[in-house]
């Protein structure tokens, strides 16, 4: 029987993940929203504090606090931020692979670990990781927590609170997993007849770390929570996360049903349920949260890892001489991998797409001064590559907009040199232009607004922004030149350039024209060499 050696296979796991990440950086770009956290990591590394732009006030639009700190440290050591993200995510995926491998004896590793690893390596975890998010690194903590609870080892169980607090510092939704996992650990310690007092000492230590963090962040930012959490709690829908869950289920239903089927007939059902409760609690709570920026279903990625680990744990306990069971497992694995690869292929194509917004900021960067004021709703790529003072109208990176929402008053006080927004489905402009971009007027835009809404009554922060900007431009129509730009086949982007502002409109148009020419389509790493 073929055997599988642990270390070489884990190195392969790392190299496979990092190789895809490096390929994306060499020929394409990371996702729009991943750039936001990179801004904070690099500002911190360069001595500008945790801020959205150099010279800006302390703000945290980067919800993944510990992830940001780690990227910043790598940046200080000379690593490019995106390369550092690829390294950390690849390490995380290797750790998760090691956890699923640990359940099997050596004689069965090749037969079962290879297919299960392929499921992991082609899953939403990898798709979100190569886009620049912390998913691979973050879900490795999910795997470690599952491993500690499922093995119910009387020594490692004591470390569960410390792993949990680390997870909570990586991502805010990790707090939910960590708290529930700590409670599960207390239950197991009591059930095992172990020393509860010793476990509680670790709980107190973890709590002290958490409390110290919140005291520090309140004194530094003036707020207890990252700005995106204020923005995402503004939906008026009863179950705002349900649609995202349905979409995720449609892509992963074979994996989900396989895990549930094995769990239902398992004699280890109790310990598996206990190991599953932390992640399932998070999944339930996310149903009541607006899951914006849910790229490649990254918010559901912990459940994907949970399903893979449930299957791994249960298969390791079964009598594997049953050829029908083995054949069924291999068939199901092949189906899941096929579905994953098809979805991953689309994600990679999107990251490699030659979209103008990947190149406009680089073409424009020399025209933007440090005092240039930019208000925007697309807060990633544009803000990452150009300087200036940026105000995020959605509120993910600007405290006032996060707490109170965008407003005309905020726009008037900013008096921006450049306005850049996504129309968010509020207006249809296709009859006005038949080229990559066109000049337009606020009157033409207002005539084509789909729904006449008062921005004060719009709870969705993304949809609110266009209405605010339209009213502002209507009030100051003679001060701005307005352009509509094609983005994925429709005129979804609107720019307004102040006539007496820091950026000459002809320079902006020149930069925009270059952004649609292949000669100026540089990938991430090539642009980084010019900065």
Q: Can you tell me about this structure?
A:
By secondary structure, the chain is α/β, with parallel strands linked by helices. The protein folds into 2 domains: 6-352, no CATH class; 356-529, no CATH class. The chain has 23 helices and 6 strands. Strands 2-1-3-6-5-4 form a 6-stranded mixed β-sheet, with helices on both faces. Strand 1 (373-376), helix 17 and strand 2 (389-392) form a beta-alpha-beta unit. Helix 7 runs parallel beside helix 9 (173-191) and helix 12 runs parallel beside helix 14 (301-317).
Any key phrases for this structure?
531 residues, alpha/beta, 2 domains, 23 helices, 6 strands, globular
Would you kindly provide a brief summary of this structure?
This protein is of the alpha/beta class and 531 residues long. The chain has helices spanning 6-27, 34-45, 65-76, 81-102, 106-121, 124-130, 135-151, 160-170, 173-191, 196-221, 227-231, 242-264, 269-286, 301-317, 323-352, 360-364, 381-385, 399-404, 408-414, 442-447, 461-475, 505-514, 524-529, and strands at residues 373-376, 389-392, 418-422, 437-440, 480-487, 490-498.
Number of domains: 2
Are there runs of 5+ residues with pLDDT below 50, and where?
none
How would a crystallographer describe the biggest sheet? Answer: 6 strands, mixed
Q: Helix- and strand-based class? A: alpha/beta
Average pLDDT taken over every residue: 93
Oligomer: single chain
